[in-house]
Write a structure and sequence with these properties.
about 325 residues, about 55% helix, alpha/beta, Rossmann fold
Length: about 325
Amino acid sequence: MRVCILGSGAYGSALATILNENHNEVVMWTKFEQEAGEMQKTRICPKLPGVKLDENIEITSDLYTACLKADFILLAIPTAFTRDVLEQAKSYIDGKPLCIASKGIEQNSCQFVSDIAETLLPNSQIAAISGPSFAVDVIDKVPVGLSLACKDSQVSHMIATAFCNSHFKLRPCTDVIGTEICGAIKNVIAIAAGILDGMGMPESTSAMFITESIHDIKELIKALGGEGNTILSFAGFGDLLLTATSSKSRNFSFGKLIGKGASQEEINHYIETTTIEGLYTLKSIHQLIKDKNISMPIIDLIEKIIYGDKKPHDLVKFLIEKS
């Protein structure tokens, strides 16, 4: 099977190693010609220093070449750039299955990646993979499990065949939108969990917060047309648990800076030098629930702590007062 990965970041590169290990033909695309040239020479992803990619993994900046003979497309680029890339590639990939590994909501439109893909690729079957899996853990071949959401059973089987092995598991479901909601919002929740940790709150308080968040996310999934039980999947509870408790999470680490009272200069430096998906998603999810008239006070509060007049201690107060 030949798989085209759109995106050459840490997670795309990690998934490339799994696909290559399973004897698929893998071509990884980056929009930057210079980056492609460097990766071809060094076999190293800039976001994964010290990790060498197998020589069998093809790397290119030619979108046409990357997509042409692929059996399916794996999307692993930041959500902010999804629309532009899919618009460039649509004449090459419309009709081919598209598997989304990106997480987040587009600003302004407040659309999930599957919404964008369905608009631009009306003839493609859309799938999404999401779950608790840091790129370094995937590369280290430790056991990890993800949700694979797709309404087409044949496409789901094809993607599972390409990925699954003795240490990489995909559990199928049909709830694409619910899976995407979980993958996006967990980064926002992780920021708040980091705030609590930075304040010195113990694990008991963190567990309380995560449990309350699960209830709220379940209601959000149902309000947006997904299946409430998706919150109990790898994409839901699994990914939330990992991202909201680990110092490897950039979102958690960002929240921790805020919680411990870091200077604005230190916070700004972290924002400028680190990709914090939850910040991008926070604005979008906040606007989305406002537009849809959905009540989700925890998102309102996080938004006010980051951008408004609320303080970290208001998060603790909220947890106690929440009915």
